[in-house]
Structures are given as structure tokens and as C-alpha cells.
Design a protein that fits this description.
The chain has 13 helices and 10 strands. The chain is of the alpha+beta class and about 400 residues long. Among the domains are: about 90 residues, Phosphorylase Kinase, domain 1 (2-Layer Sandwich); about 140 residues, no CATH class. The strands form 3 sheets. Strands 1-2-3-5-4 form a 5-stranded antiparallel sheet. It has a 3-stranded antiparallel sheet with strand order 6-8-9. A two-stranded antiparallel sheet has the order 7-10. Helix 5 runs antiparallel to helix 6, helix 6 runs antiparallel to helix 7 and helix 10 packs antiparallel against helix 11.
């Protein structure tokens, strides 16, 4: 009952009885008719299965059959039929398409699937794709997992070799659902992947979506070894701070990427303001102002001290506001930072109007505060994803 409630957080409940509708009747070679299988080629001999490529009707297909291991043949066959029951209802462009279960004269009972011309995720990464390509692959991988979890299915063995990237267009295709689970098959204790899941201290008799989220964090670390650290850490967290759905992971990544795009824009705007003020010609002081200058040095020192206090107070106000807005959007953070620059500019104009004899000195003081405080405020914005993550951990 607890597991059923957990799955309901992903999608409305579905009729899982359809997954246990009885034994599967495979198609015979006669039923395949003109689409006779030829040119068999062994692709993989690992785990409990053998995987072949063959030709059918002028195109390549894949056949997955259980190993005839002594003492385990019946179990392997049941797992194969279980995998077919889960896969043949999955209609997604991000999941390998299952055609049918067949009784092949050479291989026996086998799952007939489409052939994906591509390479596994690790080989794709070794080709050093662009950051944009990596982002698109990550998005498609998350879409594939959302599709599965919405149907109360956990892949359970997410690793580079089970994520194919197509040769045409570099699109994601999930394969190998031998460890996949659904409510109808919970507590089958079929094991987990040795390369990814052994690090995850979860019971092996029940597969939960959080196992896929953990493995997704591992895949993101491979795709983005030098970024996304806050998001990846939360995917791999062993406590309640881990994301509870792939949709949460996707939202966090999109916030991070949006921030990466906004920071250069923000920098360009503020630098343009600084350049404009720095290069703007100032009016020459009048003879009367030059005459009065020597008698107001002490006034200027006092004014400089008061101005420093005002600018610092203004900075603290905006820095504190930025640091306590973890639930607001990145656009709001940028708006706050731009607001600081505007308020500082207004204060500067007010002071130069009130004390024209100090215009040049005020200009230098203003620019020094803007540059100093902008760097500090920008660092707060760059840490925003971390602030957001930490805030969620404490909720």
C-alpha cells in the first residue's frame, strides 16, 4: 500500500491488471510470413540474455532471447516475458520500440525490437559534443524517465550502455528493461545493475523512482563534469533532500541554465552603464566654484564619510534581499541587482546636484562603490542555485 501511494505522486493510478493479463502467445515463423528473419549476428552475450541483430523484410531488427543456462533457463524465460509485458505498451520516441514476441526457429522465444543505429552515452560523451548537445541529451533523458514514471514504471538499470544516442540527430533511446519494475511485479527480487545501483543503499526487492533519480544524477555528472554541482549532489543525496521526481530535477536544471544565460546579459548592461558614466564629459567648474574649493575641504571630508555610509547601507539592503529570496525566480534576482545600480545612480545624481563643486570626486566615489558592490552582488547571484538547494533541504 505504501508503494502504491508513492507512485501516485507521479501520475493518476492506472489499471495495473493489464500487466498481468496472462501468458504471452509469441508469433510463429509462419505468422511472420514474408518477414522471415535472416543474417543473424550476435551483438551481446552478457547477463541473462543473448542479443542478436537480424534482417527482416529488408531492414535490421534486434532479437533478445534468454540464455539457456542450466538450472536458470525457466527463470530467465520468465524474466524475458516479464520484460516484454512492460515494454510492448511503451509508445515513446525516447524508448526502443518493441515489435512482438516471436518463436524463432533458431533462437527460440525472443523479443523482437527495432534496431537503433547509434552508440551508448559514454561513447557519445567521448566525442566531446557541444554543451548545447549535452543539454538536449539531458532533456531527452529526463523526458524518457518522466514518461516511464508517469506510467508507474521504474527502469532500474539506468547506465551509459542502456542509453543509446542515435547516429542521426543525437537523440536518446532507452533500452534494456530487464531490471524494470511496475506495481504488478513489485517484490520479485531480480537484482540490480552492478555498475550503478550497488552504490545506492536501497532494498533490491522493491524498485522506486528514486533509484532512477540517483542514476540520473550519475549520468548528469558524466555529461556535465564541471557544472550542475548543486543539482547533481541533490540527485545523489541519501536523505530526504533528494529530489522526489524527475520533474523537480528538470526544473532545477532549467533554472541553472537560465541563470547561465542571464549573467552575461546582466554584466553587459552594468558595464555599459559604467562605461557611459566614465566617458560622459563633465562641465568645467565655474570660476566661483574654483575659488570656493579651497575653503570647503573639511566639508568634503565629512560629506565623503556620509556618502560612504549611504552607499554601504544601500548595498547591504540589496544584498540581504538577494540572499533571502530562494523561492523567487532568477529574473527577480537580476531585477534586484539592476535595481541596486539604478538606486546608486539616483543617489549619485542627487548628490552632484546638491554639491556641484564635488562633481568629479563624487563621480570617482560612485564608480568605485558600483564596481566593488557589483562584484559582491554578482557572486550572490552566482551562488543562487546553491541557496535554493540549501533552502529546500531545510524545509
Amino acid at each position: 500500500m505504501h508503494i502504491r501511494k508513492f507512485f501516485c505522486t507521479f501520475a493518476p493510478s492506472m489499471d495495473t491488471n493489464s500487466f498481468t493479463s496472462g501468458p504471452i502467445r509469441p508469433l510463429s515463423s509462419q505468422e511472420l510470413g514474408a518477414n522471415r528473419l535472416t543474417d543473424y549476428e550476435l551483438l551481446s552475450d552478457s547477463g541473462h540474455n543473448l542479443i542478436y541483430r537480424a534482417q527482416m523484410g529488408g531492414k535490421w531488427v534486434v532479437l533478445k532471447t534468454a540464455k539457456p543456462t542450466e538450472g536458470e533457463q525457466t527463470r530467465n524465460q520468465l524474466l524475458l516475458e516479464r520484460e516484454f509485458e512492460i515494454m510492448h505498451r511503451l509508445d515513446s520516441i525516447y524508448v526502443v520500440q518493441t515489435i512482438s514476441m516471436v518463436d524463432d526457429p533458431q533462437l527460440g522465444r525472443a523479443i523482437l525490437m527495432e534496431y537503433i543505429h547509434g552508440r551508448p552515452l559514454d561513447r557519445f560523451i567521448a566525442e566531446n559534443p557541444s554543451y548545447t548537445e549535452r543539454r538536449r541529451v539531458a532533456d531527452e533523458l529526463m523526458e524518457a524517465l518522466i514518461f516511464l514514471h508517469d506510467r508507474q514504471i521504474v527502469h532500474g538499470d539506468l547506465k551509459p550502455s542502456n542509453i543509446l544516442i542515435t547516429a542521426s540527430g543525437n537523440h536518446v533511446r532507452l533500452i534494456d528493461f530487464g531490471f524494470a519494475d511496475n506495481e504488478a511485479y513489485i517484490a520479485k527480487n531480480i537484482g540490480t545493475s552492478p555498475s550503478i545501483s550497488t552504490e545506492e543503499q536501497l532494498p533490491t526487492d522493491v524498485l522506486l523512482p528514486e533509484r532512477d533519480i540517483y542514476a540520473l544524477g550519475k549520468m548528469l555528472a558524466l555529461l556535465f563534469p564541471h557544472s550542475l554541482k548543486p543539482v547533481i549532489r541533490r540527485c545523489l543525496a541519501s536523505d530526504r533532500s533528494r529530489y522526489i521526481s524527475v520533474r523537480q530535477v528538470r526544473a532545477a536544471l532549467h533554472r541553472y541554465w537560465r541563470m547561465m544565460w542571464l549573467l552575461p546579459v546582466m554584466m553587459a548592461v552594468l558595464l555599459a552603464i559604467v562605461a557611459f558614466l566614465w566617458l560622459s564629459p563633465s562641465d568645467e567648474p565655474s570660476p566661483q566654484q574654483m575659488t570656493e574649493q579651497h575653503s570647503v575641504d573639511s566639508t568634503w571630508l565629512n560629506l565623503k564619510y556620509e556618502i560612504g555610509k549611504q552607499y554601504t547601507s544601500l548595498y547591504i539592503t540589496y544584498a540581504d534581499s538577494l540572499s533571502h529570496m530562494p523561492e523567487k525566480t532568477m529574473n527577480a534576482a537580476i531585477y534586484k541587482l539592476s535595481g541596486y545600480a539604478n538606486e546608486l545612480l539616483k543617489e549619485h545624481k542627487h548628490l552632484t546636484d546638491a554639491y556641484p563643486q564635488y562633481e568629479d570626486s563624487l563621480q570617482e566615489l560612485y564608480l568605485s562603490h558600483l564596481i566593488r558592490d557589483h562584484n559582491r552582488l554578482r557572486s550572490i547571484c552566482e551562488d543562487y542555485p546553491i541557496i535554493y538547494s540549501n533552502a529546500n533541504k531545510t524545509e
